[in-house]
Design goal:
Helix content is about 0%, strand content about 45%. It is mostly beta strands and about 130 residues long. Strands 2, 4, 5, 6, 9, 10 and 11 form a seven-stranded mixed beta sheet that branches. It has a four-stranded antiparallel beta sheet with strand order 1-3-8-7, with no helix packed on it. The radius of gyration is 14 Å and the shape is globular.
Amino acid sequence: QVQLAESGGGLVQAGGSLRLSCAASGRAFWRNAMGWFRQAPGKEREFVAAISGNGGTYSADSVKGRFTISRDNVKNTVDLQMNSLKPEDTAVYYCAAMDFTYFPGGNYYQRNKYIYWGQGTQVTVSS
């Protein structure tokens, strides 16, 4: 129903910025809650940020004030603007989507609520 493809990752210095983009296909994209997760080697995949169909946003405490999630329902894209990057932000970043029929009721943080996943894009922050 939904296919996702991330882009925009790369190598940056600490304190720098990157903008990740997730391109989505699917007729009901505008109704899907969308999220960004990340996974570093040897660690669990963790929540980064999420956005509802009408633009409400949620973020992890570790990135609050530094990362901003946004969506464009015309272009079918979800972006993650990452500023003030730290070496601990180094990870593979994944775009994810809930089914459009699922209403999370404010719970955007649990990995198992998302059923569609992209392949990921590598972000490396050097110190």
